[in-house]
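Ops channel
N.P.: pipeline sanity check, posting one input/output pair.
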């Protein structure tokens, strides 16, 4: 994996090739770059095509920034060039900050392949930052992430296309490993192709077609079909009757905002249990299927549902 020379901004293929202004080699721990208008394009956008860039947006008056920066610098040294730490002083470079939409600091953005992959705000604990980084960047000495872990990291970052490609390769290599086919259907659905996801599920052998994982993907497909579109949502604006509550809950679930949707369905059960022939309770059970029995939200809301019923 190439890295960026902190002095020239150019990509390098060998960490030992980084040079100081005097021409002497420097330790990989020095891959920490101050960003301004002259090098933002080269280091952050172009450089991230080869090496992930952690963009730390900070300000001199920000105390949490002062606490966070040493942690990020420590991690940059430990990762030995696996990512470049790019530090942006938003006070000195307000134009860049405005283009990035920075509203508060510290704001840390992970840039990969020229795209924003993930971000966090605030001075998180070191352990939490390490866990966050490990989703995307392999630390020195770590075992390479499995294809399944890579696919999940891509999904978590909103990159369903990459996850789908990984699962397609796994299916080709393991044609009778049907869990991979279900996972491919899930990634295909996340990639916006519900019909292809349904076809993948329908092509499974009967004993796998009704597995909990497959039923969950199918439930998500159905929620996407049942949920109101933007035009219908606009028509529901200002309404707080049972139908409006139910349809908005469906939209939340279809969009992946499960907690908001589940809360709305529970509320509807309390106020109008008869609506849609007990539609709120039945839909709650379908959401549980979509999430899976072990999902934290399933566990939490099953308890709430049980308490409400009994």
């Amino acid at each position: 994996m190439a890295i960026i020379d902190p002095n020239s901004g150019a990509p390098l293929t060998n960490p030992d090739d980084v040079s100081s202004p005097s021409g002497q080699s420097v330790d990989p721990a020095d891959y920490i770059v101050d960003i301004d208008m002259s090098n933002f394009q080269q280091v952050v956008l172009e450089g991230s095509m080869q090496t992930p860039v952690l963009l730390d947006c900070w300000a001199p008056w920000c105390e949490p920034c002062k606490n966070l920066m040493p942690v990020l610098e420590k991690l940059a040294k430990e990762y030995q060039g696996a990512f470049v730490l790019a530090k942006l002083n938003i006070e000195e470079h307000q134009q860049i900050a405005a283009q990035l939409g920075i509203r508060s600091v510290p704001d840390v953005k992970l840039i990969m392949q020229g795209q924003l992959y993930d971000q966090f705000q605030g001075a998180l604990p070191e352990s939490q930052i390490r866990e966050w980084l490990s989703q995307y960047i392999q630390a020195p000495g770590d075992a390479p992430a499995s294809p399944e872990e890579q696919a999940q990291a891509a999904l978590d970052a909103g990159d369903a296309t990459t996850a789908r490609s990984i699962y397609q390769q796994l299916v080709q290599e393991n044609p009778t490993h049907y869990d991979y086919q279900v996972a491919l259907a899930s990634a295909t659905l996340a990639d916006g192709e519900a019909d292809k996801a349904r076809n993948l599920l329908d092509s499974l052998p009967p004993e796998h077609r009704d597995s909990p994982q497959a039923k969950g993907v199918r439930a998500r497909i159905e929620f996407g079909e049942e949920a109101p579109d933007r035009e219908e949502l606009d028509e529901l604006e200002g309404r707080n009757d049972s139908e409006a509550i139910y349809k908005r809950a469906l939209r939340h679930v279809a969009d992946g905002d499960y907690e908001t949707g589940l809360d709305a369905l529970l509320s509807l059960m309390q106020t109008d249990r008869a609506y849609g022939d007990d539609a709120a309770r039945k839909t709650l059970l379908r959401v549980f299927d979509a999430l899976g029995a072990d999902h934290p939200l399933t566990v939490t809301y099953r308890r709430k549902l049980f308490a409400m019923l009994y």
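N.P.: looks fine end to end. The domain at 3-134 is CATH 3.40.30.10 (Glutaredoxin).
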